[in-house]
């Protein structure tokens, strides 16, 4: 009887470990743009339902409880999904984008033979496309701003270098003043001396 119980316990453990590994694989296959799918909850979920789903899933795929080599990565995705959905502003923006995708597909839905499930799948495909495009635009904007800032920085550096060069030239000019004055006086003295010699010769 004890052997039978132990065998049942081992089988249960194996089944649990298999479920954990399958859940890790499931999470890793999903797009981070769809936190609802990662947590397996409807888009109408409340904050309490989001928290409850996260607790259940996190116990299942926690890196300390599964031997899956990518458990930590899946766990981080799960946490990110919960964080995104617990942020009221971010969740509201996400739902608006999903609704926008739904509106865009309404006319196509009438023309095609999609059932409700297929339509919702296409909505999420369109939503992800919109989000990817927005992210691309955001990165392009950042890239342009960085290029503009780099150009401004380069110009400022050139101006600083030009001012420094001018100051060094002015300093060098000032420092060589005594030498110039001395040279001029020497030149004047020589010129005066040569004039006197010429005058003497004329006499």
Automatic annotation (TrEMBL):
Question: Region (Disordered): which ranges?
Answer: 146-203
The record's CDD domains line, in alphabetical order, gives: DnaJ
Q: Compositionally biased, Basic residues: which spans?
A: 193-203
InterPro entries recorded: DnaJ_domain (IPR001623), J_dom_sf (IPR036869)
Q: Where is the composition biased (Basic and acidic residues)?
A: 146-182
Could you tell me which residue ranges the J domain spans?
A: 34-98
PANTHER family for the chain = J DOMAIN-CONTAINING PROTEIN SPF31
Q: What is this protein called?
A: DnaJ domain-containing protein
Q: What gene name is listed for this protein?
A: spf31
